[in-house]
From TrEMBL:
The active site is at H247 (proton acceptor). One of its GO terms (cellular component) is cytoplasm. Coiled coil: none annotated. InterPro entries: Aldolase_TIM, Alpha-hydoxy_acid_DH_FMN, FMN-dep_DH, FMN_HAD, FMN_hydac_DH_AS. Glyoxylate binds at Y26, Y132, R167, H247, R250. It comes from Microbispora rosea. This is 4-hydroxymandelate oxidase. Residues 1-350 form the FMN hydroxy acid dehydrogenase domain. Keywords: Flavoprotein, FMN, Oxidoreductase. It holds the Pfam family FMN_dh.
Amino acid sequence: MTAVLPAIRDFEAAARARLDPAHYDYFACGAGDEVTVKANEAAFARLALLPRVLRGAGSPRIGVTLLGSRAAMPVLVAPTAFHRLADPEGEKATARAAAAAETVMIVSMAATVAVEDVVAAAPGATLWFQLYVQPDMAFTEAIVRRAEAAGCAALVVTVDSPARGRRDQDVRNGFDDLPEGMRCENLRDDDRGTVRPIVMSPVISWEHVDLLRRMTRLPIVLKGVTHPADARLALDHGVSALYVSNHGGRQLDGVPASVDLLPEIVAAVGGAVPVLMDGGIRRGTDVVKAMALGASAVAVGRPVIWGLAAGGECGVARVLGLLRDEVEHALTLCGLASTHDLEPGLVRRC
């Protein structure tokens, strides 16, 4: 990657030129008519910033601490599957870039590199582990134990997937499995010697959250919370953080944009736990808007994949660096000394 790419959208164009078209569509597409995919980005365009002036704020501080994990910026790497489709080094390259950026990478259960190998490839990286609870709780526990043993600092439990999303582009392309020699390495079953499929099950309930809470001492983050009533229930079940997400529009089409859902979830928990969000973030100004509306930090998925496909580890590093620089620049122009100074009055809906 030699060309200067000044914006996230440039990385997407570069990634599209390099990826197998079916693989690009897998990463880019959403469920149904992709109403939610489009809404995630469009919602940020409807939010305007109201900067303060003459504040003498100096260079802004943008570091955050979440569940005991320190990040140099409020942008985390969201859990996304199949990184080796974008680059041969896959999740290892992504983890090294995240470590260099001093931020948290959430490793997907559907990673194409085993969590132990991700850790080994990026010493010093701060990793959390994303989990789909499996109906076989013994197998679920085995995955959790692997994540713990590898040194992951939190468990991010995806709760918006009682069934798989229906993505028309994947059907058109006939994309329903990984290429030969590539597997979801965190799903290897030592007892069977095989790689199990991920089972999306409608029987998963709050009881399973309770089972996980008893199973591990790791902080539990619930990813995919969109309804305030569920946010309040989550507090009753002892979760450590909530993660507002509509799965990047890849599950149920027609769900509102994540940033539009964010304020109600923040209000529902009343500061009791951190609230993260993802969906549609393509600029540092988007990060600032989300944090002004109450997010403790944000996570980015597709932009990281575009960076990985465009330039491997270097591409991911550039994407994360670009977002960091844009966040600092936006805070400076808003007259703020820190992300902690962000508040809803700095955002206006238009």
